[in-house]
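assembly run, all chains below
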Amino acid sequence: MTMSILIDTTVCTACRACQVACKQWHDLPAEQTTNTGGFQNPDNLSFTTYKLVRMNEEQIDGKLQWLFFPDQCRHCVDPPCLETAFDEQAIYQDSMTGAVVYTRYTKRLDAEEINYSCPYDIPRKGPDSIIAKCDFCNERIHNGLEPACVKVCPTGAMRFGTRKKILADAAARLETVKKKYPGAALLDPEATNVIYLVAFDPTLYAKNAVADTRQQGISRQVALRRMMGPVVRMMRI
Amino acid sequence: MTNHWIDIKNSDCILIMGSNAAENHPVSFKYVTQAMENGAKLISVDPRFTRTSAKADIYTALRSGTDIAFLGGMLKYILDNDLYNKEYTAAYTNAGFIVGKSFGFDDGLFAGYSKNEKGPALGRYDKSAWAFEMDDDGVPRMDKSLSHERCVFQLLKKHFSRYDLDTVSQVTGTPRQDLLTVYKTYAATGARAKAGTIMYAMGWTQHTVGTQNIRTMAIIQLLLGNMGVAGGGVNALRGESNVQGSTDHCLLWHIWPGYLKTPRASNTSLEAYNTKWTPESKDPLSANWWANYPKYSVSMLKSFFGDAATPDNQFGYNWLPKVDDDKVYSWSDLFDAMYQKDIRGFFAWGQNPACSGSNAAKIRKAMENLDWMVNVNIFDNETGSFWKGPKADPKKIRTEVFMLPASVSVEKEGSITNSGRWMQWRYQGPKPLGNSRPDGDIILELGHWIKKAYAAGGVFPDAIVNLKWDYESNGAYDPHKVAKEINGYFTKDVTVKDKLCKKGTLVPSFAWLQDDGSTSSGNWLYCNSYTEKGNMSARRSQKDAENNIGLYPEFAWCWPVNRRIIYNRASVDPKGQPWDKKDWVIKFAGDVKDGKYVSQKWIGDVPDGGWYPLENPDGSRRDDARYPFIMRKHGHGQIFGPGLADGPFPEHYEPLECPVEKNLFSSQMTSPTAVVYRTEADAHATCDPRFPFVGTTYRVTEHWQTGLMTRTQEWLMELQPAVFVEMSEELAALRGIENGERVKVASARASLECTAIVTRRFKPFQIGYATVHQVGIPWHYGWRWPASGAEESANLLTPPSGDPNTRIPETKAFMVNVTKL
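ok done. output:
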């Protein structure tokens, strides 16, 4: 049963508990950062930062808004990175939870190609060529626990449940939020298992908040594979 | 808090002012969010647009130090537009009390003022000038129609008549329209069954007018009928997870546990002491609960000295230190004395004054005068290592510093008390590391050594030798023993309320405490927390009370006697029926016969005293009732507050260091009773072109206090690696400063290098004809960690002024300059 997360950015206060909980659970080291003139840190996702709260000050309709976007892997329903890799040992999708998981065998993939295939600019290569990103806290889920980020969120901005329930919650929440923010929207809910609710234009929150904002080309290899279909998959071309 | 954290969800309008709750009390936002989901409006008033403001329905800015002007304007708006709750105000507040003829207010000064040439307080008031007019029975004269020219209500109107929108806007820099929006939205909670709450913190308290900031809001809450009700109250968000516990147990010089008074030298006997501090009321309808004072003070003495305390030796009263009548020993005064070489030994226990105190350079210099220092802390800090700090010359410093490594809270068993007065028992998680030891064990052993030393002689050994010191089990500090001691015991077999109470059993509640030595209690407020029924603070029941407003009466325990919303007798009308039928706190459910109550029964929260309501259902008055504000002498909520050092009504005064030449409300610039220290290290400058910008300090989610626990944590340093100064784009342009560059911030006392955050979240203020810029700096840093030593404390900049009631330093408003490096 696929699991999903709803992230309501209108409730998020950018406390960064999720960002730290992720590091703590995965035993990830801190990056050396400097204050470049704001609260957001680090600047972007990395091999050791799977979750990043993006903070943007925007003037919208004459009012100052401070937009918060706890960015992470979307655990797509049909992940392009998985398709591009075409290597179940390196990237697989857990048929029980829907988690898109990278292993150490990502070492043998073309990291640039994998990152480029992602509409949200998520996968990151490490010094040993292994590629890393949020793993949905898949082992936690298998043990009846919520992902670390969801568990620690103090305001309830993050919710976790079955895809069916989360989609229903998301739709209901959207209706409520629209009363205050008529332009509110859910981002790519049909294509992702980590669904964001935003009040304003998604590009104000993050460059790659929605799929269609990133230039996407399909590599020749992937195009070929798609044309040949299941036969190709079996033959592992 | 008068209410508690969960209760915030019941509010119809939440004002967050003098607080940045989303950042500094992040879990509280769960309840703010719930309230908003139920239709509540969130208002954020802050000089800077914060993460709290980002969630607010309404945001506006005000210049730091002008909260009384802002709130005074709201007060005037409420009175002018008749938005106050008339029934509540007349029945439950002292709005109708008639003030004596000697009261007056003229050009910023109340009657009874005299200047103080010696300092550090600038002046003082003879409060007898503010006394109420008493009738022949010794009860204040009241006019419940609120029309007598000297009744509190009319005096209030007169006092705040100067706080019109234009003047307020000119002083605060808040646009008129924004003032009106905030006032209108908040004042709507004056309607019956609507409740507004205030969440405030250091943004209000850390001023020379700090106490009066809160008073202004308390007056507004009383006028609107928001005290004692669900979703209302005056709610302080304490700055530390157990600071409520520390103040309850009197870790401040001026109080004994449970907010009893520290005796003065002129209280030469126990009787004199009790007489002096026990308020007297002649009004039979006033509970005047503090009339029980002697029971609490004697029980405390019995707790301290055990069997050694007897009626013959005044229960050991003479063994406890007294304070000189006209001296103040506040935290700031300790360092002032240390600077002047009057204090030579110092325990820095779980604190970091080198970074937490205002005018930190003076504090660091003061420490150089010490013969010895004991630093009890989990890590070394700027205090323990003051002698090798940036401006210190170790060769010239003779202080011997002892480091006693302490355990962290999760390594210990014991309780904390949160902002909502809830006492929660916690268990030991990991065992203490290395040689670190819990505070309880350190104090216990220290006590044994001191007792041993005094047993062999010394100056006045009685106090130490007679101290009861049996708080261990199996050689280790036993928090359960201490908790029980705090609750209290029957020291002998005694019959109370027709019940035989056996010696050595735990006292059920403070209603059972006696003044004859037959009971002991380390803190009367906590009597009921650990009883024969068990450790009440260890309870974890998730069952809510029948009124379903989030009281959770069996989750942990709160004082007093597990009453979750205090002053809740004001949540009902004089007949004992809730003003708000939906979110009711208590309800009188006694039997009625012929229009009169004939049996006593309250349901819901623990009522603030179980007496009958003031009226029967048929409207007839009862003489076995009590007014709701039982801790106040006259039983009424104090709109007129005759006991504070700086006046019975709040008044706007400018901070010691301010950007204006004139105070538009009077010719008094600084609060006439403010505290201003006077050594050469206490330099200050006001309306001075060298320091043209308003400075303030605040916190961030990612760091904690002076940063001792967080600057050493890599994931938190990753988030907030450096001390920064936030400034407007306009100020940055003025100084040619770019976002992210290192800059210098200076005050009359010191300068600080920090990273500039140039942001739209600060905007210049229009103060009269002038443009006034404001900047802000988080105070979480210090030279000790990170190792570069480049991130220093914002408190190097902060001023030498404090509140006249509390002497809390004015760290939220002072003047600075900002320049490129």
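Chain A has a mean pLDDT of 93.

The two ends of chain A are 30 Å apart (CA to CA).

not gonna interpret more than that til we talk
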